[in-house]
Batch of 2 targets.
Target 1
Amino acid sequence: MKSVILSIDTDKRKSHIRREIYGHFSEHLGRCIYNGMYVGENSEIENIGGVRKDVIEALKNIRIPVLRWPGGCFADEYHWKDGIGEKSARKKMINTNWGHVVEDNSFGTHEFMDLCEELDCEPYVAGNMGSGTVQELSEWVEYMTFDGVSPMAELRRKNGREKPWKLKYLGIGNESWGCGGSMRPEYYADEYRRYQSFCKNFSGNELFKVACGPNADDYNWTEVVMSNLNEWHTKAISLHYYTIPTGDWSHKGAATEFSDREYYSTISKTLYMEELVTKHSEIMDRHDPDHKIGLIVDEWGCWYDVEEGTNPGFLYQQNAMRDAVVAAINLNIFNEHSDRVIMANIAQVVNVLQAVILTEGERMLLTPTYHVFDMYKGHQDSELLCSELAGFDTGCEDIGVPALSKSVSVDKDGNILITMSNCSLDESVKVTAELGGFVPAKYTARLLTAEARAYNDFDNAENVVPAEFNSVVLNGSTAEFEMPPCSVISVRLSK
Ligand code: AHR
């Protein structure tokens, strides 16, 4: 067994970990909305406003802070007026990005905004810049947020909602460098400036506008967009990066059947997020030294080949212990960069890509990734502490990766939360956390560990679940615990 020291400066707060880092993303894609979250009011499955009650409860449990919608690529072909009013009269359209299936628009603005109110989370609406108009977007904002007399506010009232909703996060264009219009960054920045000018603050609602940022390592996009936008135009730019085990879009690798080499390749490609966030932040630092513009990683997660027998356009994949480690690493990276990373949204919330929830008919299960969000939720709105870890490398053949990842925060009541992952497939590690002047009197801890390929299915939904961990040894200002191979731990220390 390896031994490592995690040294924590309990007096040195680095940055605020905004709860939005623990955000989610829901797109009109496959079974994310329809036959996933949304089953309709007349369904036999218990629901609130058509959304499954079990899904709502599960998301409340992890304190979902923000939900992005309606896309993704879908956002830039979505025309919001098709999704309001009497359901039977709503237009049917083709979902050209995702399987060319019929989109009947039964889940629209009211259903989404009401869901966010029910979840007590911030809505993050992705506006259509690619195939929409400035007027369409500007009217959407008016429809959702204006309390006075206006055509859009009247239309909203006619559709049954007297008072406006609160809308903070508004994205303008999704992947405008790709499915959102194949724009050059120079053109996008100009168009963004025009669109955002007509998205107004109404009735005390204050928009937090988000510009489309780079695809993975497109540093030129960040450079150009940051040169052309300032904090009056935008409060954040986005970044999209997916972990693809093989690095090859035509053969990405399977969700539950993979070699050890593919496992370590997945970890290595996940760790690339650290480099991406660091380098994009460096560019942002040059243009915005006062950090008035945030970085939002509004699409991240593992992207595998779809499960056999499922529609290739639906992006349905299983979720194994490997995904839990990937989630833990990414969330630790975002925490550590919370001076610049102000939000992140895992793709996607239900039944699509690295989902936290899977459904099948009446049944629902929580994935290993879900459990990581649960174990990490104490970081939400806490302060990141300075911490150093002298770790070790692991891997196989030609791939070497650091075995451990960590982040440490302190909450408003002075409790310290340590979260760590050990990605090694064969090495256990004893961690000694040195806590400076902090002498904990008690702790609670949870450990998630399983074979990397283990997963939860509908017949065995509790195969991979966290267990209470009672083996933390407190000794003055140190806390010691052991992590088995392929594991994630959360340790909460209190005085
Ligand atoms: O999350 C799936 C897709 O990935 C989104 O629609 C798009 O934005 C990205 O390419």
Target 2
Amino acid sequence: MNILLTGGAGFIGSHLVHRLLSRSEHHIVTLDALRYSGNLANLGDLDGHGRHAFVRGDICDQPLVEALIREHRIEGIINCAAETHVDRSLLDPASFVRTNVVGTGVLLEAGRRAGVRRFLQVSTDEVYGSVETGMSNEGDLLAPRSPYSASKAGGDVLALSYWATYRFPVVVTRGTNTYGPNQYPEKFIPLFVTNAIDDQLLPLYGDGRQCRDWLAVEDHCAGIEQVLLHGEAGTVYNVGGGNERENLTVAEQILACLGKSKDLLRFVTDRPGHDRRCAVDCSRLRGLGWSPQIPFEEGLRATLRWYQEHESWWRRIKSGEFRQYYEEQYRRRLEEGTACGS
Ligand code: TYD
């Protein structure tokens, strides 16, 4: 297939580009705006690859999207491009609506008009909102609780409407919290790992007892590939790791693996509207022959090793734009935070 893969210089997108190129004969055009979290270093090893082309651009740029689909005879679109960080969505919701809703709309409409035969929307389990008990199924009511998850829900249901209305062959994946190499260090695991390496404090929101289901990026990409190739049009597939853990537990595991003290933990003012728990039922995707392969403790150790061995990758990020964001987001909270056990 000739595939247009958006957001391919980001975390999940870049892993997906590598996976698809290495496992099949797909030709891939990566479209990425290279905003703060897009990073060409994530694709550096693909320079000169005969089946890959990189284009810098915005998914909201309709003429550009239309030209790429035409010129590269695109047959499938995978939309990984998104504003993804909940905390940033509290500071600037409009950019989330623009990219996650309007941008998805541009891709859908351009794809439909050009007769593209597959459209995969990478969504998130956070569209279900906070799930106190049980597991979210694909048919559950969506109840997003942050501008981030609400904007992802917008893109997700807009995509599904293109199947209902136009029979445009859309599939949607709703993945859980993904972790692994190359993840921008604003997210929980890479933030805590890189802070701990530097003996900096680890800011746990609220009581640290919120639960997430952790999914290794390789397993997430395998799920996306399975849905791309074998998913039924108009259908949503949950993708989860089956590794439900409390944030405090994960923070303690990171510290233990790195041989650092729990004194680095700080309980800080909670995130407003913080989802207490997320968990999904993946039976539908398992029915397509997929299952997660990487146990959390093993994946976490490999991820820690990657950050230890790739300091220049994350130090460059942490010394740039990130610094000001971190200062605004955490300085006061950390000063007022409480230590573990106090
Ligand atoms: P995050 O990586 O932001 O993903 P999401 O909010 O999409 O689940 O956060 C994962 C969990 O970690 C979430 O419960 C919020 C919590 N968290 C902290 O306690 N401290 C932090 O500094 C961050 C970034 C997250």
